[in-house]
Design goal:
The protein is an alpha+beta fold. The protein has 2 domains: about 70 residues, Urease metallochaperone UreE, N-terminal domain (HSP40/DNAj peptide-binding domain, Sandwich), CATH 2.60.260.20; about 120 residues, no CATH class. The strands form 4 sheets. The chain has a 5-stranded antiparallel sheet, covered by helices on one side. A 4-stranded mixed sheet has the order 2-6-7-3, covered by helices on one side. A 3-stranded mixed sheet has the order 1-5-4, with no helix packed on it. A hairpin with a 5-residue loop joins strand 4 and strand 5. The longest helix is centred in the middle third of the chain and has 15 residues. The chain is elongated. The termini are far apart.
């Protein structure tokens, strides 16, 4: 088994990108659970049996070294519920602040990420149950759908990803991190198509 035990950096870094140009790296995709483990045994895209021992949380685009081979990490996409406020009449800033307040007050221990006019919640429970919980907080015109997103969307301090109002609720220890936002309606640093499907309108009376 090949063991990747050295972290070189991210593929966007000049020095790392230069090394990748002269190599034939292995590609490996890990899920949200394995990327947080200090030791992972997995299989690269070409079938190579691979162990990862780098004692750090993996990000999409991380580059590792296993003996004389480079390994490029990708994160498996995860399903998320998407609430889109673009067509709602209320101020986006005020509406999203209210969503974060309701999210914390509900004490559901759901992760929450906000980008532009959209709020993302991992599908931790049945979609219908989650919609029932958040529907009373939504203004007229808001829509609910689903999307496949990178699990890194919900990380705290996920450098350079452009999350706005990125909040995590851990019991009573709720905290918020703010950076520049962007619209998730197009492809961005997390990869993937970023589209939302299964969208339906929510009215203030709670009928979909």
């Amino acid at each position: 088994m090949l063991v990747a035990d050295s972290y070189l950096g991210h593929r966007s870094e000049d020095a790392v990108a230069a090394r990748l140009e002269d190599a034939e790296p292995l590609s490996v995709t890990v899920d949200d659970t394995d990327r947080r483990r200090s030791r992972v045994r997995t299989t690269a895209a070409d079938g190579t049996d691979l162990g990862i021992v780098v004692a750090r949380e993996l990000r999409d685009g991380d580059v590792l070294e296993a003996d004389d081979r480079l390994v490029v990490v990708s994160l498996a996409r995860t399903a998320a519920l998407v609430v889109d406020f673009a067509e709602a009449g209320a101020s986006t800033a005020a509406t999203l602040a209210a969503v974060e307040l309701g999210h914390a007050a509900g004490n559901r221990h759901w992760d929450l990420a906000v980008e532009g006019a959209r709020a993302y919640l991992p599908l931790a429970e049945r979609r219908e149950r989650m919609e029932d919980e958040i529907r009373p907080h939504l203004p007229s015109g808001a829509t609910i759908g689903t999307a496949d997103v990178s699990p890194a969307l919900f990380d705290e301090g996920s450098g350079g990803s452009g999350h706005s109002g990125h909040s995590h609720d851990h019991g009573s220890d709720a905290h918020t991190h703010t950076s520049g936002g962007h619209d998730h309606a197009h492809d961005h640093a997390h990869g993937g198509d970023g589209h939302v499907h299964g969208v339906h309108d929510i009215d203030p009376g709670g009928q979909s």
